């Protein structure tokens, strides 16, 4: 009996990402015997920016997502995945009396955290034109993050000069959600060819309050004989 590996979808329903079995998975009885995998690696660098809206003190930032998926050679849902997120920058646009304030995250804000994603690989469904103009056979991968870090704070140091001012550590509970939203609220669909790395950029992804995101994806695929621990 072919085993179908399926991630439980939660939150938003993503059209086109479903439960699919690898069509070429080698099997013996009820137990798949797999000694070759397709490893698809995706990084996504997200940079927030604010170019319009009501003028106000706004704190933004950037972050890097790293996702590794291990699929059966016939595609389908991932057998194993590894995912992480790390804050890469934090900056505030200060106005009025706050322009002289000192603001920065504590070191703990930059520690990597685990993330997970829904994904589906459809083999031989596309082509990619390489940098040299060569047409490469490619697979299609669809993915989106499974959860948002709703209410998860970043600890931010604040100090505004003044006669009675004292330093404070205050939580920023919005920034992480803003950084995760583009990869959570939309399913992303890319072509990926074996042994070829390429990038794709989406600019001005709309969020809220005049904030947008620029996202740079880097994708690669390779065949491996084992799953890295």
UniProtKB/TrEMBL annotation:
Signal sequence, start to end: 1-20
Keywords assigned by UniProt, alphabetized: Signal
Protein's name according to its UniProt entry: Lipoprotein
Organism: Candidatus Uhrbacteria bacterium GW2011_GWF2_46_218
């Amino acid at each position: 009996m072919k085993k179908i590996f399926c991630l439980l979808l939660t939150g938003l329903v993503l059209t086109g990402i479903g439960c699919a079995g690898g069509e070429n998975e080698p099997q013996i009885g009820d137990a798949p015997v797999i000694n070759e995998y397709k490893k698809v690696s995706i990084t996504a660098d997200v940079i927030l920016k604010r170019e319009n809206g009501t003028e106000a003190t706004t704190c933004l930032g950037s972050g890097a997502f790293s996702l590794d998926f291990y699929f059966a050679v016939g595609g389908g849902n991932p057998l194993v995945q590894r995912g992480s997120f790390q804050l890469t920058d934090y900056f505030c646009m200060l106005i009025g009396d706050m322009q002289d304030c000192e603001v920065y995250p504590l070191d703990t804000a930059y520690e990597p955290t685990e993330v997970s994603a829904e994904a589906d690989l459809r083999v031989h469904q596309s082509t990619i034109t390489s940098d040299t103009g060569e047409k490469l056979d490619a697979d299609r991968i669809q993915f989106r993050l499974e959860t948002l870090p709703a209410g998860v704070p970043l600890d931010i140091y604040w100090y505004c000069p003044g006669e009675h001012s004292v330093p404070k550590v205050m939580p920023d509970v919005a920034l992480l959600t803003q950084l995760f939203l583009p990869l959570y609220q939309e399913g992303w669909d890319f072509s990926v060819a074996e042994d070829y790395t390429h990038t794709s950029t989406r600019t001005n992804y709309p969020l809220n309050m005049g904030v947008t995101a620029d996202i740079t994806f880097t994708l690669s695929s390779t065949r491996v004989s084992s799953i890295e621990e």
